[in-house]
Amino acid sequence: MPKKYKKSELRKLLEEAFEHYKQQTLYKEEIHQYFKNKGINEKEIDELIEEAFYQDILDIGIVPISDPKDPLKIIEGKRVYILKRKEKWKKIS
Fold first, then answer.
1. Quick one: which H or E segment has residue 15?
2. Which pairs count as long-range contacts for 28-37, CB under 8 Å and 24+ apart, including other chains?
3. Is residue 8 classed exposed, middle or buried when 0-12, 13-18 and 19+ CB atoms within 10 A define those classes?
4. Does 20 reside within a domain?
5. Is the residue at 89 inside a domain?
6. Do the bridges between strand 70-83 and strand 58-67 make them parallel or antiparallel, or are there none, so unpaired?
7. CATH number for the domain that contains residue 60
8. pTM of the predicted model as reported, rounded to 2 decimal places
9. Residue (of 10, 9, 49) closest to 26 by Cα position
10. How far is CA 52 from CA 30, 48, 77, in A?
């Protein structure tokens, strides 16, 4: 996939989305709605997220959603995006 954004531009776009929701973790639906409201289509949003993952800006995970009546029964998994911090872990010697 060709790069469309510089890493700094991509990070800024995503930081704005996460700041909008005041969260470090967003559901797929939240991030998609944010960028749709900015005039970006589904395909471009998916490409933006994919590029952010490959540029080590986002982590992608699944959060299990359980039945409210039976918390041990998982009824679905929801995709989440986690904004990585800018700072790198310091090597402990």
1. helix 7-21
2. 28/78, 28/79, 28/80, 28/81, 31/81
3. exposed
4. yes
5. no
6. antiparallel
7. 1.10.10
8. 0.79
9. 49
10. 16, 6, 22
Give the contacts of 51 (CB within 8 A, at least 6 positions apart).
1, 3, 4, 5, 10
pLDDT tens across 15-74, in order?
A: 999 999 999 999 999 999 999 999 999 999 999 999 999 999 999 999 999 999 999 999
Residue 64 Cα to chain centre, angstroms: 16
Residue 22 C-alpha from the chain's centroid: 13
Cα distance between the two ends of the chain: 38
Parent domain of 16: 7-83
Question: Would you mind telling me the total number of residues written for the chain in this entry?
Answer: 93
